Amino acid sequence: xxxxxxxxxxxxxxxxxxxxxxxxxxxxxxxxxxxxxxxxxxxxxxxxxxxxxxxxxxxxxxxxxxxxxxxxxxxxxxxxxxxxxxxxxxxxxxxxxxxxxxxxxxxxxxxxxxxxxxxxxxxxxxxxxxxxxxxxxxxxxxxxxxxxxxxxxxxxxxxxxxxxxxxxxx
Length: 170
Ligand code: FE
What we know:
By secondary structure, the chain is mainly β.
């Protein structure tokens, strides 16, 4: 496709480090619905579309990798009784995913972040978080990891984010 070169494996790089694992936190809910859009009509916040690929450490795209996302709403509140802003999907045959959502708000002690679990078929489950460049709270958040920063661009109607995951070879 016309996608840009994968950041984690660009320039013919033969290998890449596994996406860092960070804490799951207290708000994961199992059995999220399968869907590529967490956005719902009328939802508050800045619309955000994140695209990217899942690669193995030897830079091969992973088809059918699981990606399970969950996040706070634009006010920093999680839905802990239902599945608002929670959903899982699988990468396509090229290892690509696309998530439509909103920019999460901050809550006490944390900078903006989106939680994610990623797993190649029969591979190790990686629990991580994605972060936003330029957030003033990043420096004071002990969980923040700059290797987990989204690449963000403004687009019509919101923001476009890009992030590639790297998982161990199963
Ligand atoms: Fe969180």
